Amino acid sequence: MAREIIITVYLFVFRIFFYIFNLFPQKKKTTFVASFGDNVLHTVGEIEKQTDDQVVILKTSQCKVNFDNASDRIILDFETLNLIDWFKSIYHLATSHHIFVDNYFGFLAVTNFKSNVNCIQLWHAAGAVKQFGLKDPSIKGRSQRANDRFQKVYQRFDHVIVGSEKMTRIFRESFGISHDQILRSGIPRTDFFFDQAAKNQAEQSLIAQFPMIDNKKVILYAPTYRDDQLSSANIELNIDQMYKKLKDNYILFLRLHPAIKMELSHEYPDFVVDVSNYDHLNHLLVVSDILITDYSSIPFEFALLNKPMIFFAYDLDKYANSRGFWEDYEEFVPGPIVKNTKDLIDKIHKGNFDMDKIKHFADQWNQYSTGHSSERLIKTLYTSDEAYRVVDQA
After folding, report:
1. Class in CATH terms, 195-365
2. Sign of CA dihedral 271, 226, 7, 74
3. Cβ contacts of 197 within 8 Å, gap of 6 or more
């Protein structure tokens, strides 16, 4: 109840200021709201190549990506604790002709954009394992006010970008949108995986920062954040076992949620490296030889590198009941499933991964992500080029 009251007050104030700023003249300007940032970064770069729009980036506290490499970009802190930036952010949202978002943002429920404004959902994942939006099982426990607000946010999307037809179906069910709202341009941040020079540069940068990875293989552990970990400083993976069995040949990168605070580097020198705050996930994927995850969306991009994955789904039944999956998990994932560290280590040692399954997974989920996604997206939206917009296939 208290949370709903706070949200209601926040949106009431937001609505008032948005209404006032909406009376101001519209500018030749594109505004981004970034909570993850990778798709935003690639899209911004392409806008600056193809258009002369002023680019405004509103960063939430969650966003780790650094956008400060261009002097003419406006970058603001989109948090109420920074009131000046927050008011400026509302002004830019009300006076831009394109709005890009990469997540669910409640403020969209009270933003009645001008009729010529396009609101584009970039999203932050190339695919989906767990259900979300209108299909999220937790919807049953929400208040009617919350459900109405979510619906208003989804209705604000003029376009949603996808990298595959599989994701088209998921977005249509999750957001209640039509085929006409889908842009099959591919996922902007996947362009990186088709750029050999960029990959080489990222690899050399990481080797310079972490020299130990030049002589050993890298295991990246990137689990999904769980709500019950908010007050916990532990992870289910047994680091001590991993260290004893793998330290001679491997380095373990940990990519954890910021809420999980672990100081392990001094306990396991030259083995454990905390990369949770590293800016670019894509760069970490390039230097990783094996990915360990569970219900995350990372495998959809990692599959493009044709490298093995292991799914450490120790709480599979519990998670499936609480969150819900789009497909049968055990048939869906392109790698072995383990539920304890001993079996995980055994899979790493054996190394008999089904690489054909990984390639098939990559082809299915990255159908339209072929190295030119950012370029296609901006051509479609800014030059009225309909070549990349596919009509209803139902």
Report:
1. alpha beta
2. positive
3. none
Residues with Cβ within 8 Å of residue 211, at least 6 apart in sequence: none
Render pLDDT for 25-58 as a digit per residue (tens, 0 to 9). 999 999 999 999 999 999 999 999 999 999 999 9
What is the C-alpha to C-alpha distance for residues 142 and 248, in angstroms, rounded to an integer?
50
Q: In degrees to the nearest 10, what's the CA dihedral of 366, 371, 377, 383?
A: -150
Report the alpha-carbon distance of residue 375 to residue 378 in Å, rounded.
Answer: 5
- State the residue for tokens 């072929």: 370
**Same CATH fold assignment for domains 2-187+369-388 and 195-365:** yes
- Tell me the average confidence (pLDDT) per consecutive run of 10 residues in the chain, 394 residues long: 88 97 96 96 94 96 84 92 96 98 97 96 95 88 88 97 97 95 97 97 96 95 74 76 95 81 72 89 96 96 97 92 91 96 96 95 97 96 58 36
What pLDDT is recorded for position 270? Answer: 86
Could you identify the residue written with the tokens 């080029």?
385
- Give the gyration radius of the chain's Cα atoms: 21
The domain locations on the chain are: 2-187+369-388, 195-365
Quick check: 65 and 37 in contact, CB under 8 A?
A: yes
Domain 2-187+369-388 has CATH 3.40.366.10: no
pTM of this structure: 0.90
Residues facing residue 74 across a β-bridge? 56
- Measured between alpha carbons, how far is residue 387 from residues 185, 363, 374, 390 in Å? 10, 22, 14, 8
Return the percent helix, strand and coil in the chain, to nearest 5. Answer: 45, 15, 40
Task: Report which residue type is found at 93.
Answer: L
Given a contact cutoff of 8 angstroms between Cβ atoms, the answer to whether 220 and 75 are in contact is: no
Position 297: which residue type?
Answer: S
- Residue 181, helix vs strand vs coil: helix
Contact (Cβ atoms closer than 8 angstroms) between residue 40 and residue 100: yes
